[in-house]
Amino acid sequence: MSNPRLLGSETIPRSVQEYFGHDKVSLFGTGGMPAAPPAPPGSPARRQGEAALADALSKVGKPGPRIGARPVVTPPKPSLVAGMRKRGERALFEASMREFSRRRVARGPHAGAGLVWRRVFVPVYRAIPWTIKRRMVSITSGVRGWRR
Questions:
Q1: Number of compact structural domains in the chain
Q2: Domain span at 36
Q3: Which sign, positive or negative, has the C-alpha torsion 46, 49, 55, 58?
Q4: Hey, how many other C-beta atoms are within 10 angstroms of the C-beta on 117?
Q5: What CA–CA distance (Å, rounded) separates 47 from 28?
């Protein structure tokens, strides 16, 4: 496990070579830059690091959960109303991006909203006067007691 390049170097004193002997990658990490010095032998930090490394090496090649593989808790399925609101907002957002990209001669957005939402919902929503939209929002919103 010894690194001949490290041990054969005349620029590093022998005492330092012995001290960093267990962790030569830390001394000459990627790019040749020294990393943080390792914990001294026998210290709690050294024992924790060695235990973590042994644990990781024992799991190599074995099936099982990995950190970040999936969420800890499965998110709840949105209600029908919340899903429809989300799809409607997405369709309106895409329509505004498409309109803006036409004016700026740029590429349009990727289509994420369905055809019905783009072809039916957006034109109908845009045709509704603002006074009616404001009344709809005040009725359907969860916030109560707001005026105007």
A1: 2
A2: 4-59
A3: negative
A4: 21
A5: 22
Q: Give the DSSP letter string of 74-130.
A: PPPPPPHHHHHHHHHHHHHHHHHHHHHHHHHT-------S-HHIIIIIHHHHHHS-H
Overall pTM surpassing 0.70 (yes/no): no
- CA proximity to 122, closest of 92, 93, 85: 92
pLDDT single digits (tens) 120-145: 999 999 999 999 988 887 777 766 66
Taking CA atoms, 112 is separated from 72, 86, 94, 105, in Å, by 27, 11, 8, 21
Same domain for 84 and 55: no
